[in-house]
Fold these 2 entries.
Entry 1:
Amino acid sequence: MTQIAIVVYSLCLAASLLCAGLLIRSFRRTREPLLFWSALCFSFLAANNVAVVADMLIFVQPNLMPLRDFFSIAAIAVLLWGFIWRTE
């Protein structure tokens, strides 16, 4: 794996963690439900990025694609649920 790939995966992880943290902080201050669902979505995306980094850098042999797919689908499902629940 190239150094550029490692940097890109690490930056994606850092960005998703930063977004999740900022959304959680904003939710705690305003108690807006959509911020909660967005924070939860970005938390799942951060977990997905952790799985990507672990899959690419740490665990070479076992394939973590099912775990990565689960986190991606969970992130989308949580955000969709938040949007649908908010419109009611």
Note: Helices lie at 3-30, 33-58, 65-87.
Entry 2:
Amino acid sequence: MRYHPLVDPQYDGMIFQTYAAELARRLRFASPPFRVVDVRPPDAYAGGHIPGAVSAASIEPSALVASAPGSRIEIFVVGRGPGDPEARAASLALLHAGAHRVVELTGGMLEWERDGLRLESGERAA
């Protein structure tokens, strides 16, 4: 299997956490490859989500993992706010489906919006 040089396989199978500012930076410099999954209800997602995010309601964890080039991407999981149990459940489901690296946004959409970061609205296909 070929690895992206910036995705260290030593940390595979772990759930990491990061802040909104780091995800915003990654959106500007998309290397190594990553996806953003919003686990909030579809109406909340449609009302405003992180640019490029897909709704967890529109894609199964195994399909998301399989869609990755070489199945080697980081998957950022975004919930409602700090400690969102749906975000952790989604993170665990992604690991179970074979994701190599899962990163939870610690403050969820509450932090993203509080920091005044850009939103997209409407539906987005997986």
Note: The chain has one domain: 9-114.
